[in-house]
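Title: Comparing notes on inverse folding

I've been comparing how different people in this forum approach sequence design from structure. To keep things fair, I'm posting one structure and asking everyone to reply with a full sequence. Here's the target:
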């Protein structure tokens, strides 16, 4: 009996230590989330009662303390998001003028602003199928550097540019995800000053080079079909304007045959330091 008792006491003690550690960790996580919520309330002046602090929102909150350029624009985006105003980007005067210009050029604005979801067969991807779509959630666009550890990542020197990509409607981000929902590819596209569609570097993260090449080709097919829907011409060169952001990182336009980037520079909008 005394051996059984000792074993029971030992097992109970071990379980209690595990439970105590789990409870302490949960309490710490709640406290960290409370800090994020306080920061968000300070930045936006809003504290929604049933706010879910998911990864996208946590990243956006961290960005408010990480970037200097485009910080005020990020705050406007967060205020609109918290208030449920998802049409805020379309009403911004800079975007509104851009969309009017698209209409005048005969470009299908509805298609340009759509998600255009498509599924392709792709070796090296979970389930050998990859899902491509244009991201419409600005907070998800803010993650575009984090998924591939680029200079647009949180804490990196060009993280501010994700805010311009999330807010300015002449720039769109395409994500490719596998059957498990994991991001395996990303590409930024934009409409240049002449009204043509240009593309920037395609980032992929498959384990095999052959799969990455196949995914690059899929992005090219996807963009070609999307451009046709929008009635846009594909341009191998061009400059994508800054509409109203303070600064934007031009990663360098890449020719549609996956040639060498033609640029790579931080651009500052003249007279927009208050953006």
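Reply #1:
Here's my take.
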């Amino acid at each position: 009996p005394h051996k059984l008792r000792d074993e029971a006491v030992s097992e109970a003690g071990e379980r209690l230590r595990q439970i105590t550690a789990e409870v302490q960790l949960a309490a710490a996580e709640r406290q960290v989330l409370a800090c994020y919520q306080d920061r968000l309330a300070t930045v936006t002046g809003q504290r929604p009662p049933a706010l879910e602090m998911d990864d996208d929102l946590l990243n956006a909150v961290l960005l408010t303390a990480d970037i200097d350029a485009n910080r005020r624009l990020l705050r406007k985006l967060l205020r609109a998001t918290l208030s449920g105003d998802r049409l805020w980007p379309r009403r911004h005067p800079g975007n509104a003028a851009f969309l009017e210009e698209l209409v005048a050029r005969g470009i299908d604005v509805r298609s340009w602003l759509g998600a255009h979801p498509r599924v392709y067969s792709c070796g090296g991807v979970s389930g050998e199928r990859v899902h491509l779509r244009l991201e419409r959630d600005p907070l998800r666009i803010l993650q575009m550097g984090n998924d591939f550890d680029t200079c647009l990542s949180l804490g990196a020197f060009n993280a501010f540019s994700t805010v311009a990509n999330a807010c300015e409607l002449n720039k769109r981000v395409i994500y490719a995800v596998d059957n498990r929902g994991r991001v395996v590819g990303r590409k930024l596209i934009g409409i240049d000053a002449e009204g043509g569609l240009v593309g920037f570097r395609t980032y992929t993260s498959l384990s095999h080079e052959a799969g990455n090449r196949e995914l690059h080709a899929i992005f090219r097919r996807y963009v070609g079909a999307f451009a046709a829907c929008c009635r846009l011409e594909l341009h191998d060169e061009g400059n994508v304007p800054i509409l109203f952001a303070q600064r934007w990182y031009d990663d360098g336009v890449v020719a549609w045959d996956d040639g060498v980037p033609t640029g790579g520079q931080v651009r500052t909008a003249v007279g927009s330091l208050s953006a």
